Amino acid sequence: MNFARGIFAMALACTSASFADVVFSADFENRAAGQYTNKMAQEDFPKKAGVSSWYAMEQNGGQNAKIVQDDEEHGMVLQLKYPKGCVGPNDEGERPACAGQVKQPLDVSAEEMWVAYDIQFEPGFEFVKGGKLPGLCGGKCYTGGNRPSVGDGWSARIMWRAEGAVVQYLYFVDQGSTYGDDAKWNLGETAEQKHFVPGTWHHVVTRVVMNSVTTEGKGDKNGIVQSWFDGELSLDLDTLRLRDFQDQKIDEFYLSTFHGGNDDTWAPTNDVFVRYDNFVVSTDSIPVASAKPGVSDEGSTAIKPALSNNRDGSRVGDYVGKRSAKRPGETPKYFKNEKDFNAKGQQQ
Questions:
Q1: What are the phi and psi torsion angles at 208 (to 5°)?
Q2: Has this prediction a pTM greater than 0.70?
Q3: What is the DSSP letter of 232?
Q4: In whole angstroms, what is the distance from residue 281 CA to residue 267 CA?
């Protein structure tokens, strides 16, 4: 563990009295190199008692999930394997399962929640047509082509697309596509489209705020999903109807990652790997940059990362404490569905 990592840990410890906002975190530093089992996942991603969950880290004969030693900054990390020919999260006949899954009901449910993690696609990774990455969901946590007809569930995961393009992959009551809608990480076509670069560690953060419900059974279109890529605000939606009922909250973390899609045209032609580290879910703002953190403001539970610039030169704040300015009620022009990527037949 290097100096920067140590400072970050101390900063978190110093704010721990008021950092009850952190729902869970996992950095794998307590793990030795070797196979990562379902039992380990249950310990690192603890679920709410009495609620259904699943842990699938022993797919493909236990070959898909390992703890490995990374560089000094990241230490021990979770490495997931996407075997040659894999599509989807399950072993099916001769076709192996990709990577692994954790569906984790959280100990708390909230109107607003943040999720962050570090991710590195290893050199040689084959993006092919796309694949799923972890994110938040709530209610019935719709995925896999199960489109909500009423606002009783939603999901807001991340996807990689061809050549590593990053999008938010959204299931919600007003979605335009059967298999979820894509929202490109390009800040409404005012910034460069973000891409994952193999061999490079990236830090991704997503903030979700539930829409209001003025009339029970018909939610308002003011739900928020914002995402940052390496400290830069890259997605800013605030017209979403995620729920129709006030009791629907943000209540699950879904680590679901695989190539697909649902046919062999999505599959990698070689074994490829992705590394994950520093998962955090919180009900309050968390760092949007993974650079060396500074000292938090007095009385604040947020650790302030360095500022970054938008392409137009405007500044991105350290963290978002207030919702963004309201845009007109129509869906933003950059809210795209999967057709923009010629992607059909999504799975999960």
A1: -120, 130
A2: yes
A3: E
A4: 30
